[in-house]
Structure formats: structure tokens, C-alpha cells
Amino acid sequence: MPHESPKTDHPRAPSQTRPDDRENTMTRTRLLAALLTAATLIGTAQAQDFPRTTIQLINPYAAGGSADLLARTVAMAMAERLGKEVIVVNKPGAGTTIGASFVAHAEPDGHTLYLSTATAHAIMPRLSKTAYDGIADFAPIAMLANVPNVLVVRSSLPVKTVPELIAYAKAHPNALNFASVGIGSQPHLAAELFMQTTGTRMVHVPYTGVAPATTDLVSGQMDLGFLNAPPLLQHIESGALRALAVTIPKRADLLPDVPTLDELGLAGFDIGTWYGLSAPAKTPGPVLDKLRRTLAAVMSDRAVRGKIVSQGSEVFYLDGDAFAAYLKRDAERMARLIDTAGIKTR
User: Fold this and answer.
1) What's the CATH number where 140 sits?
2) Are 143 and 155 part of one and the same domain?
3) Could you tell me which of 162, 172, 171, 158 has the C-alpha nearest to residue 203?
4) Is residue 67 predicted with pLDDT exceeding 50?
5) Same domain, 94 and 80
6) Which domain, by its residues, includes 132?
7) Average pLDDT estimate for 284-303
8) 6: pLDDT confidence band, cut at 50, 70 and 90?
9) How far apart are CA 125 and CA 334, in angstroms?
10) Residue 296 and residue 117: Cα distance in Å, rounded?
């Protein structure tokens, strides 16, 4: 028989860490800890010094509208608490994206803020190529207010309730036209959601603003619209327009006798015109915290809340984390609606 050498197991030598390796690891750990401490101290110092100069609050709409009134009310109250001027700068155009892009690329030090809207953060980035990411390029500070949209019809339309409107629209497909304030606007999306939910078909007529849309509704050239409540109130009271429902989950303070679409069987129907406040992404956490504390005080002030309500808005306050979660959900919801409705800007 051939001679077989006995098998011998040679255990692997345990890995050894040289003293200089341990020293390098400890040095790196100490350096990282020092950097984190320095960053914390810098952030804290920035918050203590903040604001160092005037704060710009960028409003992506023209002066005089509900957004402008809200922005100026909040800006004045913030200035009183921060001890520095807070000025509203109107940068309208391109469906709110001019103002949003300006803030997204501003210095992230808390001195440039944005009056946030679903249009800027969720809708326009889905409809067109924007120079910013509606979620990643912003740090949500707080939700402020909501302007209810209301479903109104011309007084001569032979419907007095939402069920009657649905029945009429089904019996006359594409015979009714609805006014909006632009492609992809909340009034447009509210109508699209209504049609999807009820199985109806109507014709979209986009306007450049709520004023001309309301004028044509009152004159009878338009059949209906899902528009901001404040400009419609006088026409609802006069009987020129008939309010059938509001498009948010709870009844509007301005129209307490008008039911919600959710109440009427369109479960979960929620498309209002909300406003919040955001800063550029990478704004230091302590600065954001100071802004959030300031806004919490502002929005809990009875005089400020009363002024906001008198302007036609409803206080809808959410702090930073809650606002960020709402914004993410709303962006996903709007994206699905835009895609399923096949909405395009061209």
C-alpha cells in the first residue's frame, strides 16, 4: 500500500491588531467626535445669532391675492418675535416655479424662506421639468393655512345638489364646461378627481386667474368650477352662483351650511389650496427649530388667527415633521391623479 502521510490541521493564527492600527482607529474616532461637536456648536451659534439681517419671504404669487395677504400677516408677526424685518417679496410666474427655484438655490441660512404650495412642491415638478426637486431641495418648516375650494354652478344650471349634478353630467357627457385657474391648478385637479370618482366627463376651460373665471361663471358662460371660496362668497350670497359642496374633509368656516364632498359619498375627497413655509434644504437644524418655535407662537396668537380667518383662509397648522409627512403624501397623491388623468401642460 502506498504510504500516506498523516493529515495535520494547522489552525490559522489569530488576526493581530498592531498598536499603530489601534491608535489610528482611536484617532479617527476622536476626530469624528470633535467634528460632530464642532458642527453642533456652529449650528447652535448660528441659531443664537439668527436672524442676522432681514428675512425674505418669497411669495410665488402676485400681490393682492389670498396668498399675499397670508404671507404679509405671518411676516409681520414673525418680525415682532424675531426682532428683524421680514419682508414679502413677490416672484410670480411659471406656475410658482420661479419663486420656488429662487429659494431652492438660495443660501441655506434661514434668511430666505418660501411660501409653500402644492403647486410648487408636488404638481409642477410632475407636469414639467423644473430647476429644483419639490421635496429634496426644501426643508419644511410648518403648514400655516388652507383656503377651501368650493364647487359652484351657475344659477341657471338645472341642478341644486351634487347628486343632481352627477346625474346631469352623466346624461350629458362633455356638455358641461368647468373653469379653472390653469392647467394643473388645484381647481383643475379637483374637477379631474370629481370626474374620476363619479364617472362623469366634462370640458376643462383654464383661465389666467380666479377673477376672470368667476366673471364668466356669474355671466353664465361657464357651467361650474371648483374655485377658492373667498372670491365667490358675494356671488353665492347674491344667488348668482350656487354652492353645492366644499372640497376639503371638513365644512368651511365661511360656508358652514355647505356639505363636503366626502359627506356626500365621495370618500376621502380632499383638494384644498394649502400654504406652508419652507427653507432651502441644508438649512441648519437649530435655525429651523428657531423658525418653527417662532411660527408656533405666531399661529397660536388669537389676533393673527382672527386676521387669517377674516381674509378667507382657515388656520391649518402642522409642525415640521407633520408638515413634511403631509407634503410627501400630497405629492404622491397628486402624482397619481396627474398620471391617471393624463394631464399635460402641452
Assistant:
1) 3.40.190.150
2) no
3) 172
4) yes
5) yes
6) 49-147+273-341
7) 97
8) very low
9) 11
10) 19
